[in-house]
Design brief:
Layout (H helix, E strand, L loop, with lengths): L25 H9 L7 E5 L6 H12 L2 E3 L4 H7 L5 E3 L9 H12 L5 E5 L11 H9 L2 E3 L5 H14 L6 H10 L4 H18 L5 H28 L1
Parallel strand pairs: 1-4, 1-5, 2-3, 3-4
Helix pairs in contact: 1-2, 3-4, 4-5, 6-7, 6-8, 7-9, 8-9
Protein backbone atom coordinates (compact mmCIF):
# COMPACT_ATOMS: atom_id res chain seq x y z
CA UNK A 1 0.00 0.00 0.00
CA UNK A 2 1.12 3.53 -0.71
CA UNK A 3 1.31 6.02 2.09
CA UNK A 4 -0.97 9.03 1.66
CA UNK A 5 1.28 12.14 1.58
CA UNK A 6 0.23 14.68 4.18
CA UNK A 7 0.26 18.35 3.24
CA UNK A 8 2.82 20.14 5.41
CA UNK A 9 3.87 23.73 4.91
CA UNK A 10 7.51 23.80 3.82
CA UNK A 11 8.49 27.33 4.77
CA UNK A 12 11.55 28.27 2.72
CA UNK A 13 14.32 30.01 4.60
CA UNK A 14 14.72 33.64 3.56
CA UNK A 15 17.63 34.32 5.90
CA UNK A 16 20.46 36.35 4.41
CA UNK A 17 22.98 33.57 5.06
CA UNK A 18 20.82 31.06 3.15
CA UNK A 19 20.80 32.98 -0.12
CA UNK A 20 22.81 31.07 -2.73
CA UNK A 21 25.08 33.54 -4.52
CA UNK A 22 26.20 32.53 -8.01
CA UNK A 23 27.24 34.06 -11.29
CA UNK A 24 23.62 34.59 -12.31
CA UNK A 25 22.59 36.62 -9.26
CA UNK A 26 25.77 38.09 -7.79
CA UNK A 27 25.10 41.63 -9.06
CA UNK A 28 21.55 41.62 -7.69
CA UNK A 29 22.76 40.28 -4.36
CA UNK A 30 25.50 42.89 -4.23
CA UNK A 31 22.95 45.64 -4.85
CA UNK A 32 20.85 44.52 -1.88
CA UNK A 33 23.93 44.26 0.32
CA UNK A 34 24.93 47.79 -0.68
CA UNK A 35 21.81 49.37 0.83
CA UNK A 36 21.56 52.10 2.19
CA UNK A 37 24.37 53.35 -0.05
CA UNK A 38 22.38 53.20 -3.27
CA UNK A 39 23.17 55.94 -5.80
CA UNK A 40 19.53 55.70 -6.98
CA UNK A 41 16.47 55.47 -4.75
CA UNK A 42 14.64 52.78 -6.75
CA UNK A 43 15.97 49.34 -7.67
CA UNK A 44 14.33 46.74 -9.92
CA UNK A 45 14.98 42.98 -9.74
CA UNK A 46 13.93 41.01 -12.83
CA UNK A 47 13.96 37.24 -13.10
CA UNK A 48 11.93 34.10 -13.75
CA UNK A 49 9.83 32.39 -11.07
CA UNK A 50 11.85 30.84 -8.23
CA UNK A 51 15.02 32.72 -9.23
CA UNK A 52 15.40 34.28 -5.77
CA UNK A 53 13.67 37.66 -6.16
CA UNK A 54 11.46 37.17 -3.10
CA UNK A 55 14.42 35.95 -1.06
CA UNK A 56 16.37 39.11 -1.89
CA UNK A 57 13.28 41.22 -1.22
CA UNK A 58 13.03 39.69 2.26
CA UNK A 59 16.71 40.35 2.90
CA UNK A 60 16.22 43.96 1.82
CA UNK A 61 13.14 44.33 4.04
CA UNK A 62 15.08 43.00 7.01
CA UNK A 63 18.09 45.24 6.36
CA UNK A 64 16.01 48.36 5.77
CA UNK A 65 13.11 47.61 8.13
CA UNK A 66 11.06 48.18 5.00
CA UNK A 67 7.33 47.71 4.57
CA UNK A 68 5.92 45.30 1.99
CA UNK A 69 3.32 46.93 -0.26
CA UNK A 70 0.33 44.98 -1.60
CA UNK A 71 -2.36 45.98 -4.09
CA UNK A 72 -4.70 46.33 -1.10
CA UNK A 73 -2.39 48.62 0.92
CA UNK A 74 -0.66 50.73 -1.73
CA UNK A 75 -3.22 53.57 -1.72
CA UNK A 76 -3.05 54.02 2.06
CA UNK A 77 0.75 53.85 2.08
CA UNK A 78 0.99 56.43 -0.69
CA UNK A 79 -1.51 58.72 1.05
CA UNK A 80 0.44 58.55 4.32
CA UNK A 81 3.41 60.23 2.58
CA UNK A 82 5.92 58.38 4.76
CA UNK A 83 9.66 58.02 4.46
CA UNK A 84 10.49 54.36 5.09
CA UNK A 85 11.83 51.81 2.65
CA UNK A 86 9.29 49.81 0.61
CA UNK A 87 9.18 46.45 -1.15
CA UNK A 88 6.77 46.12 -4.11
CA UNK A 89 6.81 42.54 -5.43
CA UNK A 90 5.43 41.30 -8.75
CA UNK A 91 5.02 44.87 -9.96
CA UNK A 92 4.35 43.59 -13.48
CA UNK A 93 1.56 41.17 -12.55
CA UNK A 94 -0.47 42.33 -9.52
CA UNK A 95 -2.11 45.40 -11.06
CA UNK A 96 -1.12 47.97 -8.46
CA UNK A 97 -3.07 51.22 -8.43
CA UNK A 98 -1.01 53.33 -10.84
CA UNK A 99 -1.65 56.80 -9.33
CA UNK A 100 -0.49 55.43 -5.97
CA UNK A 101 2.54 53.76 -7.53
CA UNK A 102 3.35 57.01 -9.34
CA UNK A 103 3.17 58.89 -6.03
CA UNK A 104 5.49 56.41 -4.29
CA UNK A 105 8.04 56.57 -7.11
CA UNK A 106 7.97 60.35 -6.91
CA UNK A 107 8.56 60.18 -3.16
CA UNK A 108 11.62 58.02 -3.80
CA UNK A 109 12.95 60.32 -6.51
CA UNK A 110 12.61 63.27 -4.14
CA UNK A 111 14.85 61.39 -1.72
CA UNK A 112 12.13 60.60 0.80
CA UNK A 113 12.36 56.81 0.60
CA UNK A 114 13.98 53.85 -1.15
CA UNK A 115 11.94 51.28 -3.09
CA UNK A 116 12.72 47.75 -4.23
CA UNK A 117 10.58 46.47 -7.10
CA UNK A 118 10.51 42.87 -8.35
CA UNK A 119 9.11 41.57 -11.64
CA UNK A 120 9.31 38.70 -14.09
CA UNK A 121 9.07 40.75 -17.28
CA UNK A 122 11.04 43.65 -18.70
CA UNK A 123 9.46 47.05 -18.06
CA UNK A 124 8.43 47.40 -21.72
CA UNK A 125 6.15 44.37 -21.26
CA UNK A 126 4.39 45.60 -18.09
CA UNK A 127 0.64 46.22 -18.58
CA UNK A 128 0.83 49.85 -17.51
CA UNK A 129 -1.73 52.37 -18.65
CA UNK A 130 0.29 55.35 -17.44
CA UNK A 131 3.35 56.44 -19.43
CA UNK A 132 4.58 58.52 -16.47
CA UNK A 133 4.76 55.41 -14.29
CA UNK A 134 6.59 53.46 -16.99
CA UNK A 135 9.12 56.25 -17.53
CA UNK A 136 9.90 56.42 -13.81
CA UNK A 137 10.33 52.67 -13.48
CA UNK A 138 12.64 52.70 -16.50
CA UNK A 139 14.93 55.12 -14.69
CA UNK A 140 15.59 52.51 -12.03
CA UNK A 141 18.65 50.30 -12.51
CA UNK A 142 17.52 46.74 -13.30
CA UNK A 143 19.37 43.74 -11.89
CA UNK A 144 18.60 40.40 -13.51
CA UNK A 145 18.62 37.03 -11.81
CA UNK A 146 19.43 34.00 -13.93
CA UNK A 147 20.59 30.45 -13.41
CA UNK A 148 23.94 30.24 -15.14
CA UNK A 149 25.18 26.66 -14.72
CA UNK A 150 24.76 23.19 -13.27
CA UNK A 151 26.30 24.20 -9.98
CA UNK A 152 23.63 26.83 -9.32
CA UNK A 153 20.82 24.41 -10.20
CA UNK A 154 22.36 21.82 -7.87
CA UNK A 155 22.63 24.39 -5.09
CA UNK A 156 18.97 25.29 -5.56
CA UNK A 157 17.96 21.64 -5.18
CA UNK A 158 20.11 21.34 -2.06
CA UNK A 159 18.51 24.43 -0.52
CA UNK A 160 14.94 23.35 -1.28
CA UNK A 161 15.55 19.89 0.16
CA UNK A 162 17.24 21.51 3.15
CA UNK A 163 14.15 23.66 3.72
CA UNK A 164 12.15 20.42 3.82
CA UNK A 165 14.73 18.76 6.08
CA UNK A 166 15.16 16.03 3.45
CA UNK A 167 18.57 14.50 2.73
CA UNK A 168 19.27 13.62 -0.90
CA UNK A 169 22.33 11.92 -2.38
CA UNK A 170 24.28 14.47 -4.46
CA UNK A 171 24.44 11.88 -7.25
CA UNK A 172 20.65 12.03 -7.55
CA UNK A 173 20.77 15.81 -7.80
CA UNK A 174 23.38 15.50 -10.56
CA UNK A 175 21.12 12.99 -12.33
CA UNK A 176 18.23 15.48 -12.20
CA UNK A 177 20.26 18.46 -13.35
CA UNK A 178 21.57 16.58 -16.38
CA UNK A 179 18.03 15.71 -17.57
CA UNK A 180 15.72 18.54 -16.51
CA UNK A 181 14.53 21.65 -18.27
CA UNK A 182 16.93 24.30 -17.04
CA UNK A 183 15.14 26.94 -15.00
CA UNK A 184 14.64 27.85 -11.33
CA UNK A 185 10.92 27.15 -11.65
CA UNK A 186 11.62 23.59 -12.81
CA UNK A 187 13.84 23.01 -9.77
CA UNK A 188 10.98 24.05 -7.48
CA UNK A 189 8.42 21.88 -9.31
CA UNK A 190 10.68 18.82 -9.39
CA UNK A 191 11.64 19.16 -5.73
CA UNK A 192 7.95 19.15 -4.83
CA UNK A 193 7.27 16.10 -7.02
CA UNK A 194 10.21 14.22 -5.53
CA UNK A 195 9.14 14.99 -1.99
CA UNK A 196 5.57 13.90 -2.60
CA UNK A 197 6.55 10.72 -4.43
CA UNK A 198 8.96 9.71 -1.67
CA UNK A 199 6.33 10.42 1.00
CA UNK A 200 3.70 8.39 -0.85
CA UNK A 201 6.05 5.40 -0.86
CA UNK A 202 7.48 5.91 2.60
CA UNK A 203 11.06 5.87 1.27
CA UNK A 204 14.00 8.15 0.75
CA UNK A 205 14.39 9.92 -2.58
CA UNK A 206 15.99 7.37 -4.88
CA UNK A 207 17.17 7.46 -8.48
CA UNK A 208 14.02 5.55 -9.50
CA UNK A 209 11.87 8.23 -7.85
CA UNK A 210 13.93 10.93 -9.57
CA UNK A 211 13.29 9.25 -12.93
CA UNK A 212 9.58 9.04 -12.16
CA UNK A 213 9.46 12.72 -11.21
CA UNK A 214 11.17 13.69 -14.47
CA UNK A 215 8.72 11.56 -16.46
CA UNK A 216 5.78 13.10 -14.59
CA UNK A 217 7.07 16.58 -15.34
CA UNK A 218 7.44 15.73 -19.04
CA UNK A 219 3.79 14.63 -19.10
CA UNK A 220 2.73 17.85 -17.38
CA UNK A 221 4.60 19.99 -19.90
CA UNK A 222 3.11 18.04 -22.79
CA UNK A 223 -0.35 18.65 -21.36
CA UNK A 224 0.41 22.35 -20.87
CA UNK A 225 1.57 22.67 -24.48
CA UNK A 226 -1.51 20.82 -25.72
CA UNK A 227 -3.79 23.05 -23.65
CA UNK A 228 -2.04 26.18 -24.91
CA UNK A 229 -2.38 24.95 -28.48
CA UNK A 230 -6.10 24.30 -28.09
CA UNK A 231 -6.57 27.76 -26.54
CA UNK A 232 -4.76 29.36 -29.49
CA UNK A 233 -6.95 27.44 -31.95
CA UNK A 234 -10.10 28.60 -30.16
CA UNK A 235 -8.97 32.22 -30.45
Amino acid sequence: MRQLPLEFDHAPSHAADDFLVGAGNALAHGRIQAWPHWPEAVTLLIGPPAAGKSHLARIFADRSHGQTVTPETIAAIAAADGRGALVIEDADRLHYDEPSLFHLLNQAMRGNRTILLTARAEVAEWPLATDDVRSRVRRAPAFRLEVSDDIELSQMFAKLFGDRQVRVDPKIISYLVARMERSPEEVAVLANHLDRLALSRGTAITRAIAAEALALRDLERDHERQTDGEASTDE
